[in-house]
Design a protein that fits this description.
- By secondary structure, the chain is an alpha/beta fold.
- The protein folds into three domains: 2-218, Acetylglutamate kinase-like (Carbamate kinase, 3-Layer(aba) Sandwich), CATH 3.40.1160.10; 306-458, 2-Layer Sandwich (VC0802-like); 463-623, 3-Layer(aba) Sandwich (Rossmann fold), CATH 3.40.50.720.
- The chain contains 21 helices and 24 strands.
- Helix 2 (43-55) runs antiparallel to helix 3 and helix 10 (329-339) packs across helix 11.
- Mean pLDDT is 90; it is low at 639-643.
Amino acid sequence: MQVLKFGGTSVGSSKNINKVIAILEANAKQSKVICVVSAVGGITDKLLKAGHLAKDNKKDYKKEYKAIKNKHLAMLSELIPTNETKVADALEEKLKQLKNLLDGIFLINELSHQTSDRLLSFGELLSSFIIAETLKSRAISAVLKNAQELIVTNSNFTKAEVKFEPTNLNIRNYFNTSNKSITIVPGFISKSVNHEITTLGRGGSDYTAAIIAAALHVERLEIWTDVSGMYTTNPKLVKQAYPIKHISYQEAMELSHFGAKVLYPPTVQPVLDLKIPIHIKNTMDPKALGTIISENSHGKSSTATGITNINNIALLTLQGNGMVGVPGFSKRLFETLAQEKINIILITQASSEHSICFGIEVQEANLAEFAINEVFEYEIATKKIDPILVEKELAIIALIGDKMKSHQGISGKMFSTLGKNNINIRAIAQGASERNISAVIAEKDVKKALNTLHESFFESDTKQLNVFITGVGNVGERLVEQIKQQQQYLKKHLKINLRVAGLSNSRTMVFNADGIDLNAWKAELKEGEVATLEGFFKNAKVLNLRNSVFVDVTANEAVSKLYAKYLKESIAVVACNKIACSSTYENYVKLKALSLEYNAPFLFETNVGAGLPIIDTLSNLMASGDKITSIQAVLSREFKLCF
């Protein structure tokens, strides 16, 4: 017996459902298949939105309902011949029940957790009905089994806890007697011991599949989604990310908890105890290997397994001299958060006991701030502690891997990599297991941080440079053409992936975070936005790309005055413009100091000797201990040499 689960994208259109059916038919030739399905992609959010609109007495809920209705009816008409009126009528009846519920919410202006569970259950009930009826219409041996008749929970609505003893009994009794080749089961939904409709929490369809797989002791659980497994990091933000072939249960739980949406965190637990492997597969590319999650990671050589992130984080800090050496502060703090049902994602405390810092979801920050200030009202009034400090627009990034334990230098490598790219760390947390190193950073830096860390830990052979060139005149044009000509050589022989992310002449400028097409850069620049020096700097700063380099191919004094601003953003400066280094000695020293402080190279080899390696040679001589006593040179009238 096999258990396969298909996510919202996999059942998000009639085209994709046909792919699902093909996969089910192929697997059914080997043994019986239990297919757990999510709601059609986006429908759960639409149901929730419709419910809140109805609660707020806004008639727009009817528009949301109509969109939900039209989506499902259209899919049914595309999958099943129009003469199957009984099926269409049955679907219409289910949709009518949904409308009646929304109308009721509108009339009483109330949406409790219990009503919300009933409302959201329609997503999976509708999708599973359509898929099951499609299979039957094609003469495939299939049956629909409502998960509410199998999975028993408590009455903790919106995230119910499973009662495993009656649940396992229900599952075994049903499937051991079923004679159908394929059984369709709606995920996410369940019923309490009091026969109330409950749900297992967002992402609960994975959990449903794992519960069934564990109850039946199947050989493997397959989770089918729209990507080819769990990736080294978010492939939408890091193009170089790639699927992980094998990963341990513990690593999978860490990655899924910290934002890897391929797998719902509780999914792992039911199968972990029984050591049932989980296989993440791609519905759009069934032949792709995907990711196998099992007891161990099968001897992979990399110390780190993946990098992940959680956005929309608020960082709260409780601090004050009155906390030092006084027991009970932590207990009162965390009890307060627990009473308000606020989940803590990250905790860190200084050894001085002067402060406790923790991360929560940003939408819970105001509630947490009010509750904590109320509980510690006396201590705040007597100046023993400060009012809770709340910081928003933050994110958590986490480096994860079983083999990181006791491996020297991982933390140092992670934080130095971030520091070199001007990514400030607000808080750090690392457990004793050493499987996860987490850091809180500004949300605007997430993409840059993921790309930087991925390059450092997973692309050690190749370094990417993002170049911003201003002054694309005769000389600048030759530089762009030279980069175009040498890109492949640099990548192959020097392991440097050189991309031009910004170009500017005196009239226009153009930017592309993924790299400007150097086969058509002139046409793109011609159609670019109006060029300004400050605008060019701001765009380079906002793009926030790792290993950024500003190249000045002008003889403009105003451009040279911006070098300090670039260096302060950890953007390297390469200048053929002689003005900055031939200005006051104080300015030259300042730029060199900024280069060291922000770890951003400041290079100006072309300032002397028409590009001959004079400065580099002199620097190497001095670094090796030689003392330069005199320099002889023939200088042009326009140039002053400073050492």
